[in-house]
Design a protein that fits this description.
The protein contains 18 helices and 27 strands. It is of the alpha/beta class and 605 residues long. Bound molecules: acetamide and zinc ion.
Length: 605
């Protein structure tokens, strides 16, 4: 009898493992019930949709299924009952989720996705696509899922100023946002090191502000190269990206920085600054070649600065249908304003006590202009200094306190503390990782972030719109490295933003991530391959160590070398714990199924 129980238990455990591998949905849904059996996907399955306004969703699903499984499904508006094996997409107003939620039912005879709005169907399709088995099979496990996001703001910042990326790459990134059920693409388009958006009224933004005559080395050497670097996106390209994102239920929020991070624009039009030359050096302005914060900023005492910014914003607002415009506001040292007669006169005329109040006045003036066009502003948390309006949304990045304070004051807040959600930080040991910015934001740190501060009441917590990951690109000159920094941390972000708090579990996430790695590989995403994990135990008899290595992806091959031998693809394959003698060194790396490898780690350090 006991044997029977044990066998049954083992069978159940095994089934659970198999199922867990099949579903492995990221971000984890609100409720998921796994059932017996499979729906068999084949070329005679038809996607049926309830109304022409859903045609684009059926096309999207058809194209993705083709890419993922090789099958060519047809789609039809309101396919009659009993006609064929079908995947049906329907809008049903009684579906009790928020506007982005959905029901997904997979049975042996068909698949039903229901939602009360098209965005919900879109996310139901994303889940269905994840359910498609990773390798070579067309079977979709029978499940019943009820799902909806926890937060309305699920975003990523893409810094395009420090480095340029192709439109094709930006679209690939947008596809991945959608795939992770994220819905905000914060596009950082203007900064000291380059102006990236075509503004027809100001051609020197394209001719001058878009290019720098050198770039700080990012390979550890000190100094600056002398290679002209830059570019910009035409208004046509921007419209194309915005439309591409919109068709994936993603809002693109442009960021036009002010009053700081504006050296590129000032170089093109020096009348925008407080003086005719760079603050503190007296040198002519130049599009900044090095990273860090500049003391040159837009003059707050000069009305033509506001004419310029309003003209720029007018063109920007015509390109971006987003509800929000991000106006920056961070890292603006006020040294130049303190010495500028025009800025000081402005303060005296209006009766402002200090430069923080001058910045607050500057931002409010711009906010008023943006509000008149029916849009709202977002600013980095520094816009709170000197006071802000009730309608502004802040982005908390230096920590979580500003977000907490904003929500207590009744302002909306987006949470992006650099301690957890800056993806330009290291995600592993600095000694073996490619060069990154100094901070440390590994996967488990990202995953542990909770956007709602415990000091907030339920009512105040409604002002926390969600969490946002930021990728600043000072050190990220290539598209492959960009993906290395984003993936898989974006998967952790998606669970912060989408998954209900009580469903978040890092150990479970790590298991599902093993499947997600395979999906990334199939999609040609250059995610970071984690190095093998190492565990060491002293052996009692001598001073040797037993070294145990494990593969976090469960799909790679671990290779190692002992002594001074360099590690290569011909190094021995790890299978059992290795005995390491005193003073011996071991190197090891994970070789993944997509032909790439992790960084080489070593022991002892
Ligand atoms: C920021 O990271 N300067 C917003
Ligand atoms: Zn000034």
């Amino acid at each position: 009898m006991l044997n029977k129980i044990i066998i049954t238990f083992c069978f159940l455990l095994f089934s659970a493992l198999v199922i867990a591998q099949h579903t492995a949905i990221i971000p984890a849904p609100k409720s998921l019930v796994e059932k017996e059996g499979f729906f068999e996907l084949s070329n005679d399955v038809v996607i049926s949709y309830s109304g022409e306004e859903l045609h684009h969703l059926a096309d999207y699903a058809t194209a993705f299924i083709k890419e993922f499984s090789g099958l060519s499904l047809r789609n039809r508006n309101n396919l009659k009952k009993g006609f064929a094996k079908k995947i049906s997409l329907s809008i049903i107003s009684s579906v009790k989720t928020n506007k982005e939620g959905y029901f997904l039912e997979v049975s042996t005879s068909g698949i039903n996705i229901k939602a009360n709005a098209p965005a919900g169907l879109f996310y139901g399709i994303q889940t269905l696509l994840q359910l498609l088995a990773v390798q070579g099979t067309h079977q979709i496990l029978c499940v019943s899922i009820i799902d909806e996001p926890r937060f309305p703001w699920r975003g990523m910042l893409f810094d395009n100023c420090r480095h340029m990326y192709s439109v094709e790459f930006i679209k690939k990134f947008i596809d991945q946002l959608a795939y992770h059920k994220l819905n905000k693409f914060h596009w950082h388009l203007t900064d000291d090191q380059g102006w990236r958006i075509e503004i027809k009224k100001y051609p020197r933004l394209q001719e001058v502000a878009a290019y720098r005559n050198g770039t700080q080395f990012i390979d550890g050497r000190k100094g600056v190269d002398s290679i002209r670097y830059g570019g910009f996106y035409t208004q046509q390209q921007i419209k194309d990206v915005v439309a591409y994102a919109a068709s994936r239920y993603i809002e693109v929020i442009p960021e036009i920085e002010m009053p700081g991070h504006s050296v590129a624009a000032i170089t093109a039009y020096p009348y925008l600054a407080c003086s005719t030359a760079s603050f503190g050096t007296g040198k002519p302005f130049e599009v900044r070649k090095v990273w860090g914060v500049s003391k040159d900023l837009y003059c707050a005492g000069n009305d033509s600065v506001f004419t310029f910014l309003q003209n720029v914003l007018t063109e920007v607002m015509q390109l971006f249908p987003s509800q929000y415009i991000h106006i920056g506001g961070d890292e603006a040292p006020h040294d130049a304003w303190k010495e500028c007669l025009k800025c000081q006169k402005r303060m005296k005329d209006i009766g402002l006590k200090n430069e923080d109040e001058l910045q607050s006045w500057f931002i409010r003036r711009i906010e008023k202009f943006i509000n008149l066009k029916g849009k709202k502003i977002i600013g980095w948390e520094e816009i709170m200094n000197g006071g802000m309006t009730k309608s502004a949304t802040i982005q908390s990045w230096l920590g979580v306190e500003s977000g907490l304070q904003a929500a207590k004051n009744g302002n909306d807040a987006i949470m992006s503390p650099y301690s957890h959600l800056y993806f330009d930080g290291y995600q592993g040991d600095e000694k073996i990782e490619p060069l990154a910015i100094g901070y440390w934001t590994p996967l488990d740190t990202v995953y542990s972030f909770e956007p709602v501060h415990p000091a907030l009441t339920k009512e105040e917590a409604k002002h926390i719109l969600g969490g946002q990951g930021n990728l600043w690109t000072e050190f990220i000159a290539t598209e492959d490295y960009f993906e290395y920094m984003v993936f898989p941390r974006i998967a952790a972000l998606s669970e912060i933003d989408w998954t209900q708090k009580d469903k978040r579990n890092f150990d479970d996430f790590k298991k599902r991530l093993q499947t997600q790695y395979q999906r990334y590989a199939r999609q040609g995403v250059h995610f970071r391959i984690p190095p093998p994990q190492i565990q060491t135990n002293y052996l009692s008899a001598d001073s040797a160590l037993a070294v145990t290595l494990s593969d976090p992806t469960a799909k790679g091959i671990i290779r190692y070398s002992i002594g001074e031998n360099e590690l290569s693809e011909n190094s021995p394959v790890y299978s059992v714990p290795i005995k390491l003698l005193h003073k011996q060194k071991i190197r090891f790396a994970l070789f993944y199924i997509d032909g790439r490898k992790s960084s080489t780690d070593y022991y002892p350090k």
